[in-house]
């Protein structure tokens, strides 16, 4: 009986000493570039001169002659070299895996979903997802769902904002998160949670679960969050409650779907049911797609409007292109699936926004064996090896001396047609064997949302959002949101 008070005392001491432990680790943590000409050490903490941690990493990677740095105390190598990225994601794919540390941190939320597993589990889910997401019927279903959500909810909501006499300040990031959640719920589960209207409990639970899962990685020692989980304390208690809500709702949906039948439905859950009978496995797989589809799309649309609002000449060119493709007489008209393919400049602007502000700013693998990267960096078995899409978008040796400028034209040829680049220099959608299967669907969603809003509304930012500052999380989220005023564009129709 005396064991439990003693354990509780030790645990409380650990939790109370957390700020001190964190400061101590930051004080002694050291980082070095693994190269012959750069052996200087710097404190592994980012100073106030950098808006966010990704900007500090970008600074260090630009200073490294090999575009690679090693944080030895964390056994972590971070690279912004496209040759290294190709080597990690393709050439030595089986050597660099998600690994157990990754699945332990995110396992309660996503395991055994495709984003945290390796081996046979990953191959099975990859084949299944590739077959379904690549099908014409699923893409058609997705396009119809997006169009319906825009026409019935998003445009009327923005019309309400624009019609308000006092020009209320709106958090666009929150609006786009709700829109993306509604949309991905329809695609994944075939349900409409109506997050642009009400019933936000499910979405709120997702927010809490993803935020707290990501914060596990920020603990100075994994034992801290593991003890909190074992004793059901603090953030781990809140995470447990959020996960319970998510899982109960998902299980209810699956049971109901089996009762009414699923063979004629087009959502991912119904299509996966034909191949998976284990309901927990099915639930976790679909939740993985739900989480990824909501956060990444919402982040991408948010930063697009952040950049377009700062660059009115880009906004004007998108409107000119939309008039050319859709005609100037009907601003409220949504593009068809085929018409979206004609928006080369918009497509370039989307890629440029994602180059500068990718939804996933850094991604990591773990080495299964000792190895040497193409730039000569030594890797030990068990080391964490990360590539940094955010920093790669800011490397002059990849994008030129104007790499910090928002310049959609860099993606266009002399005839104005979109020109893709190697995914290894632009790993925003991953690359190699784990390249994002939902890439085309995500771009389709982003384009139809953006062209629909730009043709009708003037969106102007409010408050200090330059430079953007990001909150820790599984995907890029702006601290403080994206406050803006929404007004009718004088060239639009003034109502929908």
Short description:
The protein contains 19 helices and 14 strands.
Structure explained in plain terms:
By secondary structure, the protein is of the alpha+beta class. It has one domain (25-488): Cytochrome p450. Helices cover 53% and strands 9% of the residues. It contains 19 helices and 14 strands. The protein has helices spanning 3-16, 18-28, 53-63, 82-91, 99-110, 119-133, 136-163, 172-188, 201-216, 222-230, 234-260, 268-273, 279-310, 312-326, 337-340, 344-356, 389-392, 396-399, 439-454, and strands at residues 30-33, 42-43, 68-71, 76-79, 96-97, 169-171, 363-367, 371-372, 378-379, 384-387, 457-461, 470-471, 477-478, 483-488. The strands form four sheets. A seven-stranded mixed β-sheet has the order 2-1-3-4-10-7-5, with helices on both faces. Strand 8 (371-372) and strand 9 (378-379) form a beta hairpin. The longest helix has 32 residues, at 279-310. It is globular. The chain starts with a helix and ends in an 8-residue tail after the last strand. Residues 1-46 have low confidence and may be disordered.
User: Main sheet?
Assistant: 7 strands, mixed
Task: Look at the structure and name the CATH superfamily.
Answer: Cytochrome P450
Q: Briefly note the CATH topology name.
A: Cytochrome p450
Give the oligomeric state. Answer: single chain
Number of helices: 19
Q: Work out the radius of gyration.
A: 23 Å
Low-confidence stretches: 1-46
Share of helical residues: 40-55%
Shape: globular
Helix/strand/pairing category: alpha+beta
Return the CATH architecture: Orthogonal Bundle
Spatial order of the strands in the main sheet? 2-1-3-4-10-7-5
- The chain-level mean pLDDT equals 82
CATH class: Mainly Alpha
Protein name: Putative cytochrome P450
GO molecular function: heme binding; iron ion binding; monooxygenase activity; oxidoreductase activity, acting on paired donors, with incorporation or reduction of molecular oxygen
Pfam family, one: p450
Family: Belongs to the cytochrome P450 family.
């Amino acid at each position: 009986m005396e064991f439990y008070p003693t354990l509780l005392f030790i645990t409380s001491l650990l939790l109370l000493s957390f700020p001190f432990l964190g400061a101590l680790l930051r004080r002694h943590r050291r980082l070095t570039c693994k190269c012959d000409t750069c052996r200087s050490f710097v404190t592994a903490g980012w100073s106030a001169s950098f808006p966010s941690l990704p900007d500090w990493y970008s600074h260090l990677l630009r200073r490294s002659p090999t575009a690679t740095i090693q944080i030895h105390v964390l056994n972590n190598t971070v690279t912004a070299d496209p040759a290294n990225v190709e080597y990690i994601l393709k050439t030595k794919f089986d050597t660099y895996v998600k690994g157990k540390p990754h699945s332990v941190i995110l396992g309660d939320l996503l395991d055994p979903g495709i984003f945290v597993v390796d081996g046979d589990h990953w191959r099975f889910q990859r084949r299944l997802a590739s077959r379904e997401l690549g099908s014409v019927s699923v893409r058609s279903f997705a396009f119809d769902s997006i169009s319906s959500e825009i026409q019935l909810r998003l445009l009327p909501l923005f019309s309400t904002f624009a019609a308000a006499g006092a020009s209320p300040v709106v958090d666009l990031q929150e609006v786009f998160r709700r829109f993306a959640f509604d949309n991905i719920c329809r695609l994944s589960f075939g349900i409409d949670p109506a997050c642009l209207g009400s019933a936000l409990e499910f979405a709120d639970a997702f927010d809490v679960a993803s935020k707290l899962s990501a914060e596990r990685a920020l603990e100075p020692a994994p034992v801290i969050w593991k003890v909190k989980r074992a004793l059901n304390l603090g953030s781990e208690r809140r995470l447990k409650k959020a996960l319970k809500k998510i899982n109960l709702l998902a299980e209810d949906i699956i049971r109901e779907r089996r009762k009414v039948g699923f063979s004629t439905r087009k959502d991912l859950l119904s299509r996966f049911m034909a191949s998976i009978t284990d309901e927990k496995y099915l639930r976790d797989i679909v939740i993985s797609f739900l989480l990824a589809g909501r956060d990444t799309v919402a982040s991408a649309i948010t930063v697009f409007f952040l950049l377009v609002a700062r660059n009115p000449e880009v906004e004007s060119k998108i409107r000119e292109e939309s008039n050319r493709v859709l005609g100037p007489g009907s601003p409220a008209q949504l593009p068809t699936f085929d018409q979206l393919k004609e928006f080369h400049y918009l497509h370039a602007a989307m890629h440029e926004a994602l180059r500068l502000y990718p939804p996933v700013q850094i991604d990591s693998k773990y080495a299964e064996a000792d190895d040497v990267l193409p730039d000569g960096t030594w890797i030990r078995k068990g080391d964490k090896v990360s590539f940094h899409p955010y920093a790669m978008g800011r490397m002059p040796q990849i994008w030129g001396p104007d790499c910090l400028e928002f310049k959609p034209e860099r993606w266009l040829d002399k005839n104005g047609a979109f020109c893709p680049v190697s995914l290894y220099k632009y790993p925003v959608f991953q690359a190699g064997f784990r390249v994002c299967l939902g890439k085309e669907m995500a771009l389709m969603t982003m384009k139809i949302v953006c062209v629909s809003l730009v043709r009708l509304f003037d969106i102007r930012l409010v408050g200090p959002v330059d430079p953007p500052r990001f909150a820790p999380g599984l995907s890029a989220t702006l601290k403080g949101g994206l406050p803006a005023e929404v007004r009718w564009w004088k060239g639009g129709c003034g109502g929908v």
